[in-house]
Specification:
single chain, alpha/beta, TIM Barrel, 6-stranded parallel sheet, two-stranded antiparallel sheet
């Protein structure tokens, strides 16, 4: 449906990662056939030699097999907070150097500015790194060499404008947006998808913020607090940086 609606006007990155290699390969081939610009894949949780310790050769073989099966780029997702292996800068660089289409990294292993710097010292400019992790360090990631911001934000207008201002070297505007949106960023990072859905309801994008079990919904007090935070951020960013919040016609 997403491919039909966008009609090829937007680049679409499809998450195809699975614990099973063959399912990941099949999903990646299907995504490529549908017109995906890239696939995003984390290392499987099972590829560890101990708690948090990566089986680096197995991780390399996993991504190598996927790279051999498709032609579009792979976005390697580094997100050990979800009980996945913690990938070293050396392993990430090896993936990029030895797998031709492992071109991008979505970095979500904090402190991200520090790890980003270490990776760039080894990999150079060949590997394109996206800031992520809810945008918590997005401004500093850009300072340390990130090429963009790729995170599940319900308020993308702030990230886009901050990035555009940073590229234009309007660092004050970029930093002001970053600072003034941090209360909302941290609210999203603490309460996750429930917060993002509640904001999308308020913006008119979706009808309901109800969650599927076992995920928890926001209680009434959290919804009120979120509304206060969202109102403060929208008002402050509009007055300080001229960025109006996105809104959409209400979903019928």
């Amino acid at each position: 449906m997403t491919f039909e609606i966008t009609g090829g006007k937007l680049p679409i990155v499809v998450g195809t990662g699975n614990e099973d290699l063959q399912l990941t390969v099949q999903s990646s081939i299907s995504a490529q056939g549908l017109g995906a610009s890239a696939v995003m894949i984390p290392p499987p949780k099972s590829l560890k030699t101990g708690p948090g310790a990566p089986n680096e050769d197995a991780i390399f073989d996993y991504f190598s097999s996927i790279g051999d099966a498709i032609e579009i780029p792979i976005v390697v997702q580094d997100f050990p907070q979800t009980d996945r292996p913690k990938m070293s800068p050396m392993l990430i660089t090896r993936l990029n150097r030895e797998i031709s289409n492992a071109e991008y990294l979505k970095l979500e292993d904090p402190p991200t500015p520090l790890k980003l710097t270490k990776i760039r010292e080894i990999a150079g400019d060949r590997l394109k790194i996206f800031s992520a992790f809810y945008g918590r360090d997005s401004f500093w990631d850009l300072v340390h060499g990130a090429v963009g911001i790729m995170t599940s934000s319900p308020t993308p207008e702030y990230l886009v404008t901050m990035y555009d201002a940073y590229v234009a070297r309007d660092l004050k505007k970029a930093f002001d947006i970053y600072l003034n949106t941090l209360p909302l960023v941290y609210y999203c990072s603490e309460l996750g998808l429930a917060v993002r859905k509640e904001i999308l309801v308020k913006r008119g994008v979706i009808r309901t913020s109800r969650m599927k079990l076992p995920e928890k919904e926001l209680v009434d007090s959290q919804k009120r607090e979120l509304a206060d935070v969202l109102h403060w951020v929208e008002k402050t960013v509009l007055s300080s940086s001229g960025v109006a919040p996105l809104s959409f016609p209400r979903v019928p």
